[in-house]
Specification:
Number of domains: 1
Shape: globular
Structural class: mainly alpha
Radius of gyration: 20 Å
Pfam families: Rce1-like
Largest sheet: 3 strands, mixed
Protein name: CPBP family intramembrane metalloprotease
Strand content: under 5%
Number of helices: 12
Keywords: Hydrolase, Membrane, Metalloprotease, Protease, Transmembrane, Transmembrane helix
Helix content: 55-70%
GO molecular function: metallopeptidase activity
InterPro entries: Rce1/LyrA-like_dom
Amino acid sequence: MYIEQLQKFKINLGSYLVIPLAFLGLMVYNYFSTQGIDTADMMKKMTKVIGVNGTFTMLVAPLAFLFFVVLFYNKFIQNNTLRILTTSREKIDWKRIFFSFGLWSFITIATTGISYYMAPEDFVLNFKPKEFAIFVVLAFLLIPLQTSFEEYLFRGHMLQGLGLATKTRWIPLVVTSFLFGIMHIANPEVEKLGLVIMFYYIGTGLFLGVLTLMDEGLELALGFHAANNLIGALLVTSDWSAFQTHSILKDVSEPSANIQIFIPILIIFPVLLYIFAAKYKWSNWKEKLFGTIKPIDVEEFETIGK
């Protein structure tokens, strides 16, 4: 019902094109404008001028601001509600958000600890109490807004709009996953590791899309994405990553595109889907992922979210 519930309103499907096209245009411009430029080196120079925390804020704050742009557009242009953009349930389920956030935070901390134990030479202690304390405040303020913007844009606004337009579930799932991956194409990681890293980004988008469709809401995706970026930024940074941060550790190993890129997609994400499916008793996978968007009558509208 996450997509179907919008049939209750008179939706102008053209209104779903404005924000995605504007954002994608910005991404295309950003990509071509950085061709031939060593983005990692550019970020190093920026860091020398305004500092690590200043650079982090400069990169993340615009995306955090766009979160409010999406909500404003949803409320005042499309006459929609935050609840409908977020979930098919009667109200936003914060327990789902916190469960997903906590689960992925635990896994991220555990895998980082294992990596450090297995190859301590790949890391150096980067912890500076004062700078770290300031970064913690900035990270908790900005990163959840940044990740929420991406979720509300791709798994909310775009997935719902494409679902209504195509009357399918699989088309918005595939398209939004691909576009989510393409959004990261200008990241320093892509320059360092090559286009093979795009499999990880697109695969992550696919995983988040499956979460949204199977759970009939954004809550699990919101929690996972926030934990992935926030906890990761607090724990580890590197000279070639998109986020330069005052983290606890710094990865000084030479990055390479190897089988590790595919481990989350092929192993970890399927295990997470199994855990979520068991906890929330998901069923009817074929219909929820590949079924059509069917008209629903007035009586069904009254039961949405209950």
